[in-house]
Amino acid sequence: MARLLLLCAASGLLLAAVAAIPPPEEAARMARYVLHSCDWGALATLSAQEGLRGRPFANIFSLSDGPPGGGSGVPYLYLTDMEISVQDLEVNSNASLTVSLAQTPYCRKHRYDPQNPLCAHIIFVGSIVKVNDSEAGLAKKALFSRHPEMESWPKDHNWFFAKFNITNIWVLDYFGGLKIVTPEEYYSVKP
Q1: Domain map (residue ranges) of the chain
Q2: Quick check: 130 and 161 in contact, CB under 8 A?
Q3: Angle formed at CA 108 by CA 104 and CA 109, multiple of 5 degrees
Q4: How far is the CA of 187 from the CAs of 26, 31, 123, 182, in angstroms?
Q5: pTM of this structure
Q6: Any idea where the CREG-like beta-barrel domain is (predicted)?
Q7: pLDDT in tens, 2-15
C-alpha cells in the first residue's frame, strides 16, 4: 500500500512537472506561458534620436500581463515620456518585444543556454499605445502586483500605462525554426 501511495505521489509530481511548460506543438500556449512567466522584456524601437535616427534601438522594460496566475496575454508597461525609447515611440509607435524563459529558473535548472531553442523565447511585433481610462485599472493591477516598486516612482515623471498591441507572434521553443502564431490563436488559449 505504501508503495502504491508513493507511486501515485511520484506520478502526480511528474504530471505537475510536465504540465508546467506547454509542449512544443502548442505554440500559442507556449507564447502565453512565456509572457506570463516573464517580468521584463527587450523592446526594440526605431530610433528618433539624433545620430541614430531610423536605426534599431533595444531597451529593457518591466512588463506584466497580469498578477501571478491571472494573465490576460496583453503585455502592459509603465512608461514616461522622459525615457529615450518612449521618445522613439512618439515618432513611430511600431516596435518588437522579446521575452525569454532565460530570465526564469527554468533554463538555469535545465542548463539551457539562453540561445538554446529549448529555452523558449517569444518575439512580438506590434505597436505601443497608451491605455484608455477603462483599461488603466487592469494595467495598474497587472504591473503593480508584479512590480510593487513602481507605485513609489517619482510622480513628477508623469508615468502612464501602456500596452503592446500585438500584430505578429513568433515562437522559438524547439529545434526546427520559428513558429508563427496569430493573435487570434494566442488570445484564445490559456497559458
Answers
A1: 27-188
A2: yes
A3: 100
A4: 13, 10, 15, 9
A5: 0.87
A6: 22-188
A7: 443 333 333 333 33
